[in-house]
Amino acid sequence: MEIDHVVLAARTKADAEEVLSQAGLGIARGRVIPGLGLSNLVVPLGQGLLEIHYPNGEPPAPASPPLLDFDKEALAANPSAPLVPMAWLVLMQDERRLRELAAANDMSVLEVPAEGPGFPPYTLAGFGANFDRRWLPCLIHWPEGPPALSAAHRHEPIGITRIDVAGPADDIRRWCGGEPRGLNTVPGTAGPLRVEIGFVDGTALTLGPATGQ
To answer: What sequence ranges are listed for the domain Glyoxalase-like (predicted)?
Structure first.
């Protein structure tokens, strides 16, 4: 059971690009996310993705999910961190298993259309439940296979190797039907705190607030 991707908040596009450039990570694509007041950057990692949100100056549509507010709150609470993890998604290879877990845990299931070239449609379970229980991931299944994205990395990543999540481990395991690889739970209920990316040369990069913040 793998972590599919982690969503992080940035104050500006320039802040995100600076962090990624210093780490030697390239960007595959970016777009305006309709109705949310946010745009994104997508970074392929070999296995998994980083998706970075930043405000684009547009007002959110009425009754839209309050993701912009969540991002602002997290960044305000962590003023020294340029990127702050906001949400995480766990890959379900088997769509039937995703739907079984959705039914058992009373999750909503969304069928999301393709988001332009290289980003195929996906099935998402649990979106919205993590607004109140930030430690819970969404479950994602790619019916046509995961995004076939590439980027001009100067430092070649192998994927997400660890995520620190403040939340009850039993609740996460029940939600996911097991323990996702790389998950480290810590006391609290704040949700994802830090994500570690491993590289081919054996080094690692941690994004998020420093330990103890």
So the answer is: 3-170
